[in-house]
Amino acid sequence: MTFIQLDYDTWFEQFKPITKPGTDHIAFDTHDDIDFLRTQPNSKIWTLIDCPGYNTAVIVNGYWRINRLEYYVTEMAHDEADEYNIE
User: Fold this and answer.
1) Which of 6, 9, 24, 54 has the most C-beta neighbours closer than 10 Å?
2) What is the pTM of this model?
3) Where exactly are the structural domains of the chain?
4) What's the rounded Cα separation, in Å, for the pair 37 and 72?
5) C-alpha closest to that of 14 among 52, 48, 44
6) How far is CA 28 from CA 8, 36, 45, 55, 70, in A?
7) What is the pLDDT of residues 27-69, one digit of tens each?
8) SS3 letters across the chain
9) For position 8, what pLDDT does the model report?
């Protein structure tokens, strides 16, 4: 496993988040969009996590439920063996 830290612009360019169908947003809701998210491979799902102790939020690879704010789905898959941190 490798820890990979990227800035948002690099992540956006490299993994290419898709737009939520019917909107111009890339964020998927943690409740309303769950059926769509379940059809996507885990290697293309990312979670925006609230980090209250640090007064920040970060995007991490995979489908997470704890402290989740929203999800993203990308065209390009991430390596599930690696751990990504996007700030």
Assistant:
1) 6
2) 0.94
3) 3-86
4) 9
5) 44
6) 17, 9, 10, 22, 6
7) 999 999 999 999 999 999 999 999 988 889 999 999 999 999 9
8) CCEEEECHHHHHHHHCECCCCCCCCCCECCCCCHHHHHCCCHHHEEEEEEEHHHCEEEEEECCCCCCEEEEEEECCCCCCCCEEEEC
9) 97
